[in-house]
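Today's session is about reading a structure prediction critically. Students often jump straight to the picture, but the first step is always the sequence itself: look for stretches that repeat, for charged clusters, for runs of hydrophobic residues. Only then move on to the predicted structure, which in these notes is written as discrete structure tokens rather than atom positions. Here is the chain we will use throughout the hour.
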Amino acid sequence: MEEAAEGAPPKKKSALVMTIAGIAVVTLIGAGGGWVLGGMIAPKIPGSDQAAARPADAAAGAHGDKKEEGLPHIATEAAGVVQLEPITTNLAYPSANWVRLEVALAFDGAPQLPLAEEIHQDILAYMRTVSLQQIEGPRGFQYLKDDIQERVDLRSQGKVSKVMFRTFVIE
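Below is the predicted structure for this chain, in token form.
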């Protein structure tokens, strides 16, 4: 009996090799499946095919050799966006603090400049009633944005779709 037990080779190495091979196969299947699924789900980036087809042109544009082609400017009246003049005023309390606010309005349809001026004056009047404690921190700033959006919605009667804050500085 002892002779049969001594002559049999140990099977520890083959079990370890099989475990490593199994893990490697499962890993490769998982990686391949993730790559295929990612290719199906990932959004197609417009212009990526053109940039890949013309790498010399893309490199020239990156170094400034190629003249900049007309990029559309977002804040234009043709796009329905009106940049208001900067609003600079002091706060209600403490009155020694000043605020500077630059806002742009996105109109539904053609922009109306007289309405934009009325909204500008309304925001200026509102900012004079705000205290520093009301606009302190991220929550206070969010409340300020919501209040200004509500005032603009009431003043414009739905003609302005969005108020975009460009800058906001308190001194």
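Discussion point for the tutorial: The beta strands are 81-83, 87-90, 98-107, 160-170.
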